[in-house]
Write a structure and sequence with these properties.
InterPro entries: AAA+_ATPase (IPR003593), ABC_transporter-like_ATP-bd (IPR003439), ABC_transporter-like_CS (IPR017871), Metal_Ion_Import_ABC (IPR050153), P-loop_NTPase (IPR027417). Keywords: ATP-binding, Nucleotide-binding, Transport. GO terms for molecular function: ATP binding; ATP hydrolysis activity. By secondary structure, the chain is α/β, with parallel strands linked by helices. It folds into 2 domains: 6-224, Rossmann fold; 225-261, no CATH class. It is 27% helix and 23% strand. It contains 8 helices and 11 strands. A 6-stranded mixed sheet has the order 5-6-7-3-8-9, sandwiched between helices. A hairpin with an 8-residue loop joins strand 1 (6-15) and strand 2 (24-32). The longest helix is centred in the middle third of the chain and has 14 residues, at 143-156. The protein is globular, with a radius of gyration of 19 Å.
Length: 261
């Protein structure tokens, strides 16, 4: 049964690319309206697979997923998505604005983009602070600029749920701070789930830390610490906050920075 304030509901979901070898095993997750989350875990733990399941690009072997009370496929037009990697022929003549306009492609789309489509695309570029890049060739942009263009494409569909897979990869520190400021604004009007290897990200203004490593556990952001991270990654990790302090569970805190605060 759909809970009225739940944006995402996953119940006893199992999925594997090979029979008998699940990537995700009997996971449960509820994300309510107004909440934001950061998905963390080791490489190969199932983070990107979870996003593809939420998008309806993969089908669970067992269990259910509901987005806005619907199947992922039915809810897809209400979801914005930025993939971890982009694949584009560098010789393909497309501008940054034309990449963002792809986010306006919708069911039944046929013909030219409308004035409303172009206005929404430009608004997304402006929100990411890169409106001046609109006429530039996408292939000629830096890695960080491309990343922000892809986030703008995800925003162009005016989503209610935004899924970002490693959005800060290839972004320089200054642009990263701008991105975090933009993300905090976005969270006021939509639900945002972000996959990140930057464990310091969980100290930002998010509500849930969604730990994925075949199993799934959810923690309130304020309760996530080095011990919790160690349990997810199965080895000692140092959780560095963006104010450069360190939650450390290792035996030599002076070596990781804890002793130098």
């Amino acid at each position: 049964m759909h809970t009225s304030d739940a944006i995402i509901e996953i119940r006893e979901l199992t999925f594997g690319y090979d029979a008998g070898n699940p990537v995700l095993d009997s996971i449960n997750l509820t994300v309510k309206r107004g909440q934001s989350g950061c998905i963390v875990g080791p490489n190969g733990g199932g983070k990107s697979t979870l996003l593809r399941l939420l998008l309806g690009l993969l089908t669970p072997d067992r269990g259910t997923i509901r987005i806005f009370g619907e199947s992922p496929a039915a809810a897809r037009l209400r979801i914005g998505y930025m993939p971890q990697y982009h694949q584009l022929d560098g010789a393909f003549p497309i501008t940054a604005l034309e990449v963002v306009l792809q986010g306006r492609i919708r069911r039944g789309f046929w013909g030219w983009y409308t004035a409303a489509d172009r206005a929404a695309a430009m608004a997304s570029l402006e929100e990411m602070g890169i409106a001046s890049l609109a006429p530039r060739s996408f292939a000629a942009l830096s890695g960080g600029q491309r990343q922000r263009v892809l986030i703008a494409r995800a925003l162009a569909c005016e989503p209610q749920l935004l899924l970002l897979d490693e959005p800060t990869a290839n972004i320089d520190p200054g642009a990263e701070e701008q991105f975090y400021a933009t993300l905090n604004i976005l969270r006021r009007r939509m639900t945002v789930l972000t996959v990140s290897h930057d464990l310091g990200f969980v100290n930002r203004e998010i509500d849930l830390v969604i730990c994925v490593n075949r199993q799934l556990t959810v923690h309130q952001a304020g309760a996530f610490n080095a011990e919790t991270a160690n349990a997810v990654y199965h080895h000692e990790v140092n959780l560095i906050q963006h104010d450069h302090s360190c939650f450390c569970s290792c035996k030599h805190p002076e070596e990781c920075g804890e002793g130098r605060k």
